[in-house]
Design a protein that fits this description.
- By secondary structure, the chain is mainly alpha-helical.
- It has a single domain, classed as Orthogonal Bundle (c-terminal domain of poly(a) binding protein), CATH 1.10.1900.20.
- Helices cover about 75% and strands about 0% of the residues.
- α2 packs across α4 and α3 crosses α5.
- The radius of gyration is 26 Å and the shape is rod-shaped.
- The model has no long low-confidence stretch (mean pLDDT about 95).
């Protein structure tokens, strides 16, 4: 059986790859062989980084919470330990937003944690 060299499926596949490589620099956007490698790598990075983004945001929330509790004379780790002892079930995203948007409510939360840690 002969090999299809100029079939429509082959053209469609190449066209799809080159469309994904639109905007790439040099031969990467026009030459199929290099575009295929570039697109494969880009898609893998996108897949990996969608998962990494979750950790990045958690890291950001932790940094924000730490910066917000330091003026009250407490560290992040002590603050989280106090929250756990107090039975507060807010996640880090909510606590970070609270520290940014509602400083009075955050102060109440910090005072509650300090009371629990003193006992």
């Amino acid at each position: 059986m002969s090999r299809a060299v100029d079939g429509s499926k082959r053209k469609e596949h190449r066209k799809k790859i080159l469309k994904l490589a639109k905007g790439y620099w040099g031969r990467r956007h026009s030459n199929y062989k290099t575009a295929k490698d570039a697109v494969t790598k880009a898609l893998w990075y996108a897949y990996r980084d969608r998962r990494d983004r979750k950790g990045d945001f958690r890291r950001l929330w932790i940094i924000r919470i730490n910066a917000a509790v330091r003026p009250y004379g407490i560290s992040y780790s002590r603050f989280i330990a106090g929250l756990n002892k107090a039975g507060v079930t807010l996640d880090r995203k909510a606590i970070s937003n609270l520290a940014i948007e509602d400083e009075a409510a955050f102060k109440v939360l910090v005072e509650q944690v300090k009371r629990v840690l003193e006992k």
